[in-house]
Design a protein that fits this description.
- It holds the Pfam family OTCace_N.
- Heterododecamer (2C3:3R2) of six catalytic PyrB chains organized as two trimers (C3), and six regulatory PyrI chains organized as three dimers (R2).
- It catalyses: carbamoyl phosphate + L-aspartate = N-carbamoyl-L-aspartate + phosphate + H(+).
- It is a single chain.
- This protein is an alpha/beta fold and 304 residues long.
- It contains eleven helices and nine strands.
- α4 links the parallel β3 and β4.
- α1 crosses α5, α1 packs across α11 and α5 packs across α6.
- It starts with 11 loop residues before the first helix and ends with a helix.
- It binds phosphoric acid mono(formamide)ester.
- Phosphoric acid mono(formamide)ester (CP) binds next to α2.
């Protein structure tokens, strides 16, 4: 694997290889080995043109645990503000002997553009591009599901909320399908579903009462207000009433169901605090597993 740009088309064997490798890194961190030298001498550039807390930080921690040198380009004070193009920026960083770019961008396809452009010895990881893909988020979600549910083949998984604008949902659906989850549901109002969503192989529900019945895993999504035009914005109160996950709505799912959210959460909009901080929530473990999963992806791309 040269680049990780999407989970679409990622073979089952590669998905499992990433999850298994991540498992070994969780073991390393649990045994309190702070650093391993797999990426010693490599320079990894974090290029975050869109804001991030979890992804950027866990990529940095993961790279440092692998002994890489990490450079976080501060986009706000970079030469982008003087009109430098994305590819000129990339060329200049490549001239500083970059080995890997971790890219987040508001434009779908930005990471693909960079991957096509760079020298063949440079690796690109898509850390989220527009509404298109967020593969490492989906991988850490799969890792979390496997940790808590052990086997993908008997699960009902529901992805709930703003599917239309969600790169996370797309990447999750591709990964869940490849891993053999027999029933992937999406629950959302019609206005927050992509056209022809059924083509993704999912079961579509518009109400929580039927959609959550017998579900093992609930994957909540944030309303992506920044990607909606004013008139299409649902009211937060109305949305919470019908699609916000409360303790009552969660009781419709299986008793041992787990609740996930990629973050950032809008408490009181898509999820109630009693659920987010409740016993069935695995939202913070997701973040922790993100370090091992990103270590796995970086080490596999670089052939280690
Ligand atoms: N899940 C996720 O991508 O979070 P950040 O935007 O904080 O990176």
């Amino acid at each position: 694997l040269q680049h990780l740009l999407t989970t679409e088309g990622l073979p089952l064997s590669m998905l499992l290889h990433i999850l298994d490798t991540a498992e070994s890194f969780v073991g390393v961190t649990e045994r309190d080995v702070k650093k391993i030298p797999l990426l010693r001498g490599k320079s990894i550039f974090n290029l975050f043109f869109e804001s991030s807390t979890r992804t950027r930080t866990t990529f940095e921690i993961a790279a440092k645990r692998l002994s890489a040198d990490v450079i976080n380009l501060n986009i706000a004070v970079s030469a982008q503000s003087k009109g430098e193009t994305l590819l000129d920026t990339v060329d200049n960083l490549s001239a500083m002997n970059a080995d890997m770019f971790v890219v987040r961008h508001a434009q779908s396809g930005a990471a693909h553009l960079i991957a096509k452009h760079v020298r063949s010895d440079i690796h690109v990881i898509n850390a989220g591009d527009g509404s298109h893909a967020h593969p490492t988020q989906a991988l850490l979600d799969m890792f979390t599901i496997r940790r808590y549910k052990h086997d993908f083949r008997n699960l009902r998984v529901a992805i709930i909320g703003d599917i239309l604008h969600s790169r996370v949902a797309r990447s999750q659906i591709h990964a869940l399908t490849t891993l053999g989850v027999p029933e992937v549901r999406v629950i959302a109002p019609k206005t927050l579903l992509p056209k022809m969503v059924e083509r993704l192989g999912v079961h579509v529900y518009h109400d929580m009462a039927t959609g959550l019945k017998d579900v093992d895993v609930l994957m909540m999504l944030r309303l992506q207000n920044e990607r909606m035009k004013g008139a299409n914005l649902p009211s937060a109160e109305e949305y919470f009433k019908y699609y916000g996950l409360t303790v009552d709505k969660l009781s419709l799912a299986r008793r041992d169901a787990i609740v996930m959210h990629p973050g950032p959460m809008n408490r009181g909009v898509e999820i109630d605090s009693a659920v987010a901080d409740g016993k069935q929530s695995v939202i913070l473990p997701q973040v922790t597993f993100g370090i091992a999963v990103r270590m796995a992806v970086m080490s596999i791309l670089t052939g280690n």
